Amino acid sequence: MKIINRFLTFFRVESKNKVDDEEQAPMLINNLINFFLFCIVFIEGIICLRTENIFFAIPLLSLSLIFAFHFVYLSRKTQSVGMQNSLFFFSSVTFLYFVIFGSSTGLNIIWSALFPPFIISLMGMKRGSVFSLIFSAVITIFVFIINDYGLIPDVKQYTLVEKIVFISFYNIFFITTYGIHYTYTEIILRKERRVLDSQNFNKTQEELISKLSHQIRTPLSNITGIIDILEKTNLSDDQRDYINTIHASSNNLVNVVNNMVAATKTNFSQIPAEEVSFNLYSTINNTIKLFQDDHKKKKFSLSLSADIPTNLIGNSIKVKQVFLNLLNSLLKYNKADLKTITIEVSRKELLPDKIVLKFRIISNTVVPIPKAELGEDAIHSSEIIHLNRSKYINLLDLGITQKIIEMDGNNIDIIPDSVKTVIEFTASFKENNNSQSIESIKAPTKQSENFFKPVVDIANANILLVEDNFSNQQIIILYIKDEVKKIEVAFNGKEALDKFGKAKYDLILMDVQMPIMDGFKATEKIRQIEKSTGTHTPIIAVTANAFPEDKEKCLASGMDDYISKPFQPEDLIRKMKKHLS
Question: Around Cβ 533, how many Cβ atoms within 10 Å?
């Protein structure tokens, strides 16, 4: 087995860019087929040359040179589509030549019967089977009709037994190859479906823990905050002892929540961050195949715009994970007899260092949210739809999917109506080009340090607090009221933008999860406004989202700092003084 493994490594494609497994496998198969065809044709040509049969030797040796060129040059290309089509053409010519003119070894029947295994392995089960049937019809017509009338000179003459044996061999090889490929594909699909079910179960657990963490942290932050304030008041010894006991218990609860988040992070980080070269169409198309079974009627349509490169560099596993979750959710809630899903991929931004793609998934799924829950005219109000996006995500079980998309600074939108549901999201990749570097993508993040920042005393600073929960507002104000005299409040990102356009603020405390407009979108809008004025207002995220990637996402959106609930008042004030100075 070790010898065979070493032999197979000779046919692997070497590339400067790492290649996705789904691309590496067909390249290896193409090279193996190319090698065996070269051996067959070259040996036949040499035998004909030794017997001075020039009529056979010249075309066979010419074909062997073509297969050698394929193997030496074209097989080293990471994009195998051109080689695949070329190899298919010359393979068909070779096998057809053996059928018409025979071979010097007398093995032309066996060589030609190998056409179905070669073509199905080369072109895939569906296309390969079609081409095998067409080839079967062609050779049947030749062997039983043309061969008997002598319409082509120097053709191989077959006896009746040879004809029957030839056609029988060919069909047996075809049926056997098709059966093996079909069985193997079904086994792989069943295995991936089991993995998908397991992943969905894990994601449900992760999402539950994430929700619990967020729900616990907000009131816990208020409790610890009030305890800190009480400790600074005049207390009796007994009262101080009680407060210390409550404080210690609260800290223990904080540690429990932190450990719970850490455990969830361990499961969530199972998606590797490695970037490889992969074929986007193949990755999405192979994911679609997981849902194409005979039990339910489903119709899929996939289209990519012409300006998208064949191969991209990115996290192919993450792309597949996102589509597995989206398609699984849409099909799960689709009650139609014929479930239709259309996937459209277009290029959103044309940048020299990266490719931003927009994915649009259209399904005849109606998201089952009661109209009373959404409010009147919900279907016709884009603002209400945006406000209730979290409800759609929760109902479709897309919480973890949202995290996967947004942790890279991208976004997802769900647009439902009375007849269909549209999901749109963006993703960033790099073109398969060795001249590009990762450093050039990360450089713009340091741009904010170039702004002029005048020193502001915290006592004289004008602070904008953006928080949708009234209790949270009061707690944070209690935290900082002894240090800050000017505090204004906004209940959501849209209200914060309105206030930002009318007044000058020295620092903004920004919540993340808010209705109408969240903290990420509000920060992006503020940074866009500041580009035209050449100013920069420090923004500190104050949120109950405590995952490590939450901090990365806050900083990526343009925020200057991050603090997660629950926190000590001194920590918040220290961060505020740091950014004001």
Answer: 7
Please give the biggest Cα pair distance in the chain: 117
DSSP lists the bridge partners of residue 561 as 540
HEC-encoded secondary structure of 440-478:
HHHHHHHHHHHCCCCCCCHHHCEEEEECCCHHHHHHHHH
SS3 429: strand
Q: 3-state secondary structure string, 325-387?
A: HHHHHHHHCCCCCEEEEEEEEEEEEECCCCEEEEEEEEECCCCCCCHHHHCCCCCCCHHHHHH
pLDDT per position as a tens digit, 209-262: 767 776 777 777 778 777 777 877 888 877 876 776 776 667 667 766 766 666
Contact 313, 432 (CB under 8 A): yes
**43-48: long-range contacts, CB 8 A cutoff, minimum separation 24:** 43/105, 44/103, 44/104, 44/105, 47/104, 47/105, 48/104
Measured distance CA(467)–CA(518) in Å, rounded: 10
The residue-averaged pLDDT of 412-441 equals 71
Q: Write b or e for each residue in 10-35: b if 16 or more Cβ atoms lie within 10 A of its Cβ, otherwise e.
A: ebebebebebbeebbebbbbbbbbbb
CATH fold for domain 278-436? Heat Shock Protein 90 (3.30.565)
Q: Which CATH class is domain 444-580?
A: alpha beta
| Residue type present at position 350 | L
| Domain definitions of the chain by residue range | 2-158, 202-268, 278-436, 444-580
Mind listing the pLDDT tens digit for each residue in 104-130? Answer: 666 666 777 777 877 777 777 788 888
Q: Kind and range of the H or E element at 577? A: helix 569-580
Tell me the pLDDT tens digit for each residue of 127-154. Answer: 888 888 888 888 777 777 666 665 565 6
Quick one: tokens of 347? 């290029």
